[in-house]
Specification:
23 strands, 361 residues, Immunoglobulin-like, four-stranded antiparallel β-sheet, 4 helices, four-stranded mixed β-sheet, 2 domains
């Protein structure tokens, strides 16, 4: 092989170094590729390779040579090899400037591959600690730029590529153990999009326009108006796993509303006419959840919206069971909905069904 083609795949300073930029002992983990004159990968074998750090891309003057070392028995498989510079001859170069890497076969007298790959200036404290890389220096780090903005800890510069953050399902997102406030992910299922953790719960990033399925206003949105500014929010959990509607046989004159928007009035009418504690309307009216106290029992149509927009698409944590509405049918019956299929029924008020509170925004 007369020529060596070297591809720098990964570089990492794995020893903490002082902030002064003075000479330090460091190691560089490098992966390279050897090819033959015909362009094919070098035969699987072991080779003697020499690595040098230069101040110049082309100079061969001794004054421009910063460091060199000969590696014997470098294993090459499929053309690829791995070495750690600094594991032999101490790598005591001041990493506050750029260097050029020279690679040649043999003990150093052979021709180097040109042009030499450029190693950009590294941050003063890049360390491999435990299972993650940690920048121990406060210096700005640049990707795609050698002059990162002083106001940024990380400056990414590109006109052809974007930043790709972790992508995961809703279940995988929720399985993140003790996420820190400010953690951001992209959710790939259900209500797709970017989410951030606010220190208490995951929030969908939507700007000023609200969306169905978004965690907002103390619960999860199940209806929004055409402008995305107002709508209805369901509590994130049930307020009861089974309770009677209450006061069977007592006429509730003003609780027959079934349409969207009647739930609050229905709930107040039930409370005014039925003093029984622990009934669905009272559980919702007395609820204080996530800083909000204006909850009420949904109407027949509002309950159906919760089923269609949340339960049917796997949101809201609903059970496959029946839920009460605030819509009375008669002195003895009220509307309920089976969330295992969505059927709405006129049910005896003595029946024991689940309760889910809602609120407006």
């Amino acid at each position: 092989m007369k020529n060596i083609l070297f591809a720098l795949v990964y570089v990492a300073v794995v020893f903490c170094c002082p902030k002064t930029g003075r000479s330090q002992n460091a190691t560089l983990s490098l992966q390279g590729i050897l090819v033959q004159d015909n362009g094919q990968a070098a035969l699987d074998s072991t080779y003697q390779l020499t690595f040098k750090l230069w101040k110049s891309a082309t100079s061969t003057l001794p004054a421009d040579l910063v460091w060199s070392d000969v590696f014997n028995g470098v294993k090459v498989t499929g053309g690829k090899y791995n070495v750690i510079l600094g594991s032999g001859a101490a790598l005591t170069a001041p990493f506050n400037q750029a260097y050029y890497l020279g690679v040649s076969l043999g003990s150093g007298s052979g021709a180097e591959y040109m042009p030499r790959p450029r190693l950009t200036a590294a941050p003063a404290g890049l360390a491999l600690l435990g299972t993650g890389n940690e920048f121990t220096s406060g210096a700005a780090v640049g990707i795609g730029t050698t002059s990162p903005a002083a106001s940024a800890i990380l400056d990414i510069n590109s006109t052809a590529k974007g930043l790709l953050i972790p992508r995961m399902t809703d279940a995988q997102k929720k399985a993140i153990g003790q996420p820190d406030a400010g953690t951001v992910v992209y959710q790939t299922d259900l209500l797709k999009g970017f989410y951030y953790y606010d220190g208490a719960r995951w929030q969908h990033i939507t700007g000023s326009v609200r969306q169905v399925g978004e965690s907002y206003g103390g619960g999860i949105i199940f209806y929004v108006d055409s402008k995305g500014q107002h709508g209805l929010i369901a509590a994130e959990t049930d307020q009861s796993t089974g309770v009677a509607w209450g006061c069977s046989g007592t006429p509730i004159t003003h609780a027959y509303g079934t349409k969207r928007g009647s739930g609050l009035a229905n709930t107040q009418s039930i409370i005014d006419s039925c003093s029984t504690s622990g009934i669905p309307a009272r559980l919702c009216d007395e609820l204080v959840l996530n800083g909000y106290s204006d909850w009420f029992l949904p109407t027949k149509d509002e309950l159906d919206l919760m089923y269609d927009n949340l339960k049917a698409v796997g949101l809201g944590g609903f059970s496959n069971a029946s839920y009460w509405s605030s819509s009375s049918v008669s002195g003895t019956d009220a509307w309920s909905q089976n969330f295992n299929g969505g059927a709405q029924n006129s049910s005896a008020k003595t029946s024991s069904f689940r309760v889910r509170a809602i609120r407006r925004f």
